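Working notes for the structural subgroup meeting. M.R. asked for a predicted model of this chain before we commit to crystallization trials. I am recording the input and output together here so anyone reviewing the notebook later can reproduce the run.

Input as submitted:
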Amino acid sequence: MGEKRVESVQQAVKRIKVLGVPVDAVDPDMALRAIEELLDNGQNNQVVFLSTRGLLAARSDPELARCLREAALVLPVSRAVVRGARFLRAGEPSLFNQFEFVIRTLSLIEKAKGAVYLLGARKRTLEVAEANLLGSFHGIRVVGRYFGFYPNGIEASIVTAIKKSSPHLLMVGTGIAGRERWILRHRKELNPGISVFAGNCFEVFAGEQKQVSKKLHAAGLGALSGFWRNPLKAAALFPFLWYLLLLVVSRLFRL
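Returned structure, recorded in token form:
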């Protein structure tokens, strides 16, 4: 990679703060180029997809706040985070679709003939997800997998297995206690590469869950997807209203 390209990517990723929480202002294409750089920097780099709920949690959770500070990329997946940054005049971040960006990252890994380790979800879900992933990305090598919801006593062995397999990409899914924090806790034990908590991506790969529609996501209503099947999702409105209040107070008093 040429020196000019390296410099342009570094300049294109601008870290800003929304209510004191780190967010990266970068467009999806440049973020993918940043991923390409991170694969070659000799470190284990964590990429975080930041929702409104995650942003609020980081304000009161020191470990999650540290996770975001030390992450190589913090990409907003909530329209409210993007609009909040603009409302506070902190910057102009782009809205990311988590599933689509994971797919684009996997395509990048495939072109490099790289390796992936899959961690999370139920055993059967993970097996189907792996089969479907390999069917879509023929150039990718899955160098290991372990399902989620495992007993605490075997976690050290799982981390050792990941380290020995040296994946270019570690995908962590549901059923892993700590989610993004799990990666932070073990990052120093892992070899160079990229680690990401990919949410319900394994369930989507396995065909058990549907990806949130692009229209709902773009409109900032992804959290309400499937509301008619699960009315309790309406509870997501309460943190959102609190977030709006915090934004107004922050702008009024320049906090």
